[in-house]
Specification:
heterodimer, A: 99 residues, alpha+beta, three-stranded antiparallel β-sheet, 3 helices, B: alpha/beta, nine-stranded mixed β-sheet
């Protein structure tokens, strides 16, 4: 499946195998670590990726962030970020398992 | 967190040279030629203390290198401590010494990534340059690394003798399933500096290699990311060496000497601190050695008034010393340097066929011979 293509909000993102996502206290920021490199994340990117836990759908992540940031209109921005994160190879998608 | 730490640079990278022992004998090794003089390696407990202290300062990338780091039987213990502390650990290896038991122990300890070196894409040249029969072994090790799910970087140092194989080197990286390929033009320090005239490629070779890399990048996209390290002798501006002295990297040598870069020990008149007697925080923040080339107050002309000084930071101090005999000089790769002619002359000599010395393979024996001779004088 092409991870860079726009996905339904029911799809579930997780941090890609090549990357490790963690909080760096000295930098006071979340980072993505990969072989011999690091991506510094701003607050928004960190809060989105923190929720890419292989359990919650994009829809759930968006709803949660809307509640936390008290902003109802940030859905499209989060969609856009997730799409570019997939293009960069930071996250992978899986489809929800039918229950 | 203290105010001091917030205003100071963070040493994001800790390069741990665990040992100078190495089964390979590559004539372009970046280790110092006098490595045989350094016999006492840090203990497991000493390395763990260094990891703890560096991590508290904000170090997050850990390079486990050498020599051959697999020569250390306690490697998995160091990896486990690194993982516990939150480092991203990179094992930089020739692959020699890796087997099912050890790779499992490293996986269990939390190793994040393995960088595997090849010396060439052909058995003949790989085995000649490393002075070992390791090409087929390295291919098996690559498969072992993949079967354990590690991200893998294939590294190949390139130079006059193998640069024309760049296409096949990329094919090899694709074949073994590497996620990244580091094509690193030789940087001329240590053994590579000693063997410089054998290793400098021609401008035509470089041009062809760069065209091959560009074509492959178009063709293969993200399947394999190719990192191409340029050959700076052919540039007209110097590299921003180690991202700036004392800004990002701490290299700790097998005997515990802390350096701002792999090669800095060659620089005269600078006393480099030891992790045995100084804490990592103290040596990073306060040692004269790490402060020596921070900022731009040390710069002579033409750097001092140069509009580009904040980009290249005056270039590489070791290169300035090796090529001009002056530690503070502008890196002579820069064509604004009054000594740029020395680099031009080195390239000219490479194109003539004057061979002054035979190729010297890295070994403890040659290291001792070189120690007993007068040191290679800088400026040449």
């Amino acid at each position: 499946m092409n991870d860079a293509a726009p996905r339904s909000r029911e799809a579930i993102p997780r941090i890609a195998r090549l990357y490790r996502f963690q909080w760096e206290p000295v930098q006071n920021a979340y980072v993505l670590l990969f072989p011999e490199g690091m991506v510094n994340l701003n607050v928004t990117a960190g809060e989105i990726l923190r929720r890419c836990n292989d359990q919650d759908s994009a829809a759930l992540i968006i709803a949660d962030l809307q509640r936390v940031f008290e902003a109802d209109d940030i859905g499209p921005e989060i969609d856009e970020f997730l799409q570019s994160a997939a293009q960069n190879g930071w996250i992978e998608w899986r489809d929800p398992v039918a229950s | 967190m203290s105010a001091v730490l917030q205003s100071a640079p963070i040493p994001l990278w800790l390069v741990a040279e665990l040992t100078y022992k190495c089964p390979l004998h590559c004539p372009f090794c970046s280790n110092p030629v006098d490595f045989a003089a350094n016999q006492t390696e840090l203990s497991t407990a000493e390395w763990c203390r260094v990891l703890q202290q560096a991590r508290a300062l904000g170090a997050v990338q850990l390079g486990l290198t050498g020599g051959e780091p697999l020569s250390r039987p306690d490697l998995h213990e160091l990896v486990a401590e690194a993982r516990r502390l939150g480092f991203y650990s990179n094992l930089i290896t020739s692959g020699v010494g890796l087997n099912e038991t050890r790779i499992r122990a490293l996986k269990d300890a939390g190793l994040d990534h393995i960088q595997l070196s090849f010396q060439d894409s052909t058995r003949e040249l790989n085995d000649f340059l490393s002075s070992t029969r390791t090409f087929e072994l390295k291919r098996r090790i690559a498969a072992l690394i993949k079967s354990h799910g590690f991200p893998m970087v294939m590294n190949c140092v390139i130079h006059r003798l193998n640069i024309d194989h760049v296409e096949r080197i990329i094919d090899l990286a694709l074949e073994i399933g590497a996620e990244y390929l580091e094509l690193a033009n030789t940087q001329f320090y240590g053994w590579a500096h000693l063997n410089r005239e054998h290793l400098i490629p021609s401008r035509e070779q470089l041009g062809r290699a760069e065209a091959v890399v560009a074509a492959y990048r178009q063709k293969i996209g993200d399947r394999l990311r190719i990192l191409y390290v340029i050959s700076d002798y052919y540039e007209t501006r110097p590299k921003r060496c180690m991202n700036g002295w004392g800004t990002t990297f701490i290299v700790v040598t097998p005997d515990g000497t802390a350096l701002p870069c792999h090669a800095a020990r060659v620089l005269p008149g600078i006393e480099f601190p030891s992790v045995r007697s100084t804490s990592v925080q103290d040596l990073w923040l306060n040692s004269p050695a790490f402060n020596r080339f921070r900022g731009d107050a040390w710069m002579p002309e033409p750097c001092r008034s140069c509009p580009e000084k904040s980009q290249d930071l005056g270039g590489c101090r070791c290169q300035a010393w090796l090529l001009t005999g002056v530690v503070d000089a502008t890196d002579p790769v820069c064509d604004k340097s009054p000594q740029h002619g020395r680099v031009v002359e080195i390239i000219r000599r490479r194109h003539s066929d004057e061979r002054i010395v035979p190729l010297v393979f890295r070994s403890p024996e040659s290291s001792i011979q070189l120690l007993n001779r007068a040191a290679v004088p800088p400026g040449g």
